[in-house]
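Worked example

This section walks through a single chain of length 88. The input is the sequence exactly as stored; nothing has been trimmed or padded.
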Amino acid sequence: MHRLRTLILALTAALTLAGAAAAQYYEPARGTAERAALMDTLRPLAIGYLGAPVEFVVQDPRVSGDLAMAFVMAQRPGGGQIDMAATP
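Given that input, the structure is written out below as tokens.
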């Protein structure tokens, strides 16, 4: 029983710390220079794999200090699908 109580306490502490760490990010607003700079950082890599031009549909961008992440879907400008057979 003592071991179970210790495990529950450790998991609760870990989840509390993880929640506190996750809350320290912010979402750069759509249309801001910061958000554009983040996508422009990804663009050369995407162009290398997919060919130009590439734009992104961005979901859940997050910035914390000097780290950033986002879920992105690459597409052609205007929403066109990328033909994977025609990519570099």
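What to look for: The mean pLDDT is 84.
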